């Protein structure tokens, strides 16, 4: 790397480094920003049917706003990880928060679905910078068992957004309108921008060269680790399982079962609690053998899904729908917590790149798999939703079998 590039990077971070006295509050701010991606996707889920009616768009066109965010968020992370490793975390986070705030106001005041699509892509890119930087923060600042603790806790905190967001969104839709969701996102972003600017700072330990040859070499190195590679697919399928409910749940509950947006919000809240429960269980079993516990959770997931499908002829209502979905989401939350923490901590010397690759692949797979299942099956009932869950669970089963077979060969 030339002296000019090194000097440029030094000037980039000379503005402000994280002070030791602010380490605790900066950690708290990072935990507040980690759920941002889930907040953006889940807060307006109860409003999806009303957005379709208000903007005079079909259901698929409104669901695409969610998918475009997931795809852009996933794709962005493939490059944001390299950028924050090369140019630092702090300023890129501040700029991204500012652009994110503006994009929400554009969505609020437009009636053009194409403009909303564009702003959701912008939000995916800016959120990619913010969340990747904050995931890398824990690898930068902490080491050893403390790092493992925070990475596992991070996954649980991230799962708080699916708990809180739809609950808030249901009431915002009930008493205001769908635009209120994006006002809340803008206010939240503004608060985070202020806190980040005042209390946070640069944490990158060693700047890496931003060269495509080096980036590709690092990607090849990480993807050569089979457990890491398969973990990316497992995490995407697990989160994709929950996103099937996110895409279809509100339409089933509000259109087919004729409940209010508040009820749809409560249902999504329960799904978030399921994911969080799986995360807590995953953290509590960190000491257990890695692959066997994931295989057990996947087997329970498949069994519950089969019962969900088979019981339709006996009993089918909103309560059975929520109970079965809760148990399935808890299983995939358990698998995700274990595997995502492993992927993030596997390559501490390139934390930003590993965070971007893991997060990017996860959300690309989540977006493609969930939208493909919903677009193909059009879940409108407990049975069809169950078939969607089954497809995701079976794919996870085969990947885990490959991993177990590979592990047996190495022993």
From TrEMBL:
GO molecular function: sodium:proton antiporter activity
GO cellular component labels: plasma membrane
Sequence intervals crossing the membrane: 25-45, 60-80, 92-109, 115-138, 150-171, 183-207, 228-253, 259-282, 294-315, 321-341, 353-374, 386-404
Residue intervals of the Major facilitator superfamily (MFS) profile domain: 26-408
Keywords of this entry: Membrane, Transmembrane, Transmembrane helix, Transport
Cellular localization per UniProt: Membrane
Top-level taxonomic group: Bacteria
Keyword flag Transport: yes
Gene Ontology biological process terms from the UniProt entry: xenobiotic detoxification by transmembrane export across the plasma membrane
Main location: membrane
Entry coiled-coil feature ranges: none
Topological relation to the membrane, as annotated: Multi-pass membrane protein
Protein name: Multidrug transporter
Lineage: Bacteria, Pseudomonadati, Bacteroidota, Chitinophagia, Chitinophagales
């Amino acid at each position: 790397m030339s002296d000019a590039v090194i000097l440029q990077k030094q000037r980039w971070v000379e503005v402000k480094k994280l002070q030791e006295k602010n380490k605790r509050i900066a950690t708290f701010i990072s935990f507040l920003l980690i759920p941002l991606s889930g907040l953006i996707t889940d807060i307006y889920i109860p409003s999806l049917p009303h957005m379709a009616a208000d903007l005079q768009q079909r259901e698929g066109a409104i669901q695409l706003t969610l998918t475009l965010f997931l795809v852009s968020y996933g794709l962005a992370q493939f490059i944001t990880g390299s950028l924050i490793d090369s140019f630092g975390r702090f300023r890129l986070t501040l700029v991204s928060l500012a652009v994110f705030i503006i994009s929400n106001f554009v969505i609020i005041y437009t009636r053009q679905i194409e403009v909303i699509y564009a702003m959701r892509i912008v939000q995916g890119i800016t959120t990619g910078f913010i969340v990747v930087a904050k995931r890398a923060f824990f690898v930068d600042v902490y080491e050893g068992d403390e790092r493992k603790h925070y990475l596992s806790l991070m996954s649980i905190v991230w799962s708080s957004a699916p708990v809180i967001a739809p609950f808030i969104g249901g009431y915002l839709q009930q008493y205001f309108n769908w635009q209120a969701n994006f006002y809340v996102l803008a206010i939240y972003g503004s608060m985070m921008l202020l806190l980040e600017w005042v209390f946070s700072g640069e944490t990158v330990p060693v700047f890496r060269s931003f060269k495509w040859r080096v980036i590709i070499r690092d990607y090849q190195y990480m993807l050569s680790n089979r457990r890491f590679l398969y973990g990316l697919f497992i995490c995407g399928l697990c989160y994709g399982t929950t996103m099937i409910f996110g895409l279809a749940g509100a339409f089933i509950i509000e259109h087919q079962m004729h409940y209010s947006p508040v009820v749809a919000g409560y249902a999504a809240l329960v799904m978030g609690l399921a994911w969080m429960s799986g995360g807590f269980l995953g953290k509590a079993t960190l000491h257990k053998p890695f692959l066997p516990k994931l295989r057990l959770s996947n087997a329970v997931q498949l069994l519950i899904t089969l019962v969900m499908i088979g019981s339709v002829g006996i009993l089918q209502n909103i309560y059975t729908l929520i109970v079965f979905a809760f148990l399935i989401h808890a299983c995939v939350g358990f698998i995700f917590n274990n595997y995502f923490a492993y992927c993030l901590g596997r390559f501490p010397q390139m934390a930003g790149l590993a965070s971007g690759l893991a997060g990017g692949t996860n959300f690309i797979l989540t977006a493609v798999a969930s939208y493909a299942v919903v677009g193909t099956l059009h879940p409108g009932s407990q049975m069809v939703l169950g078939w969607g869950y089954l497809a995701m669970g079976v794919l996870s089963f085969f990947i885990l079998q490959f991993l177990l077979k590979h592990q047996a060969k190495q022993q």
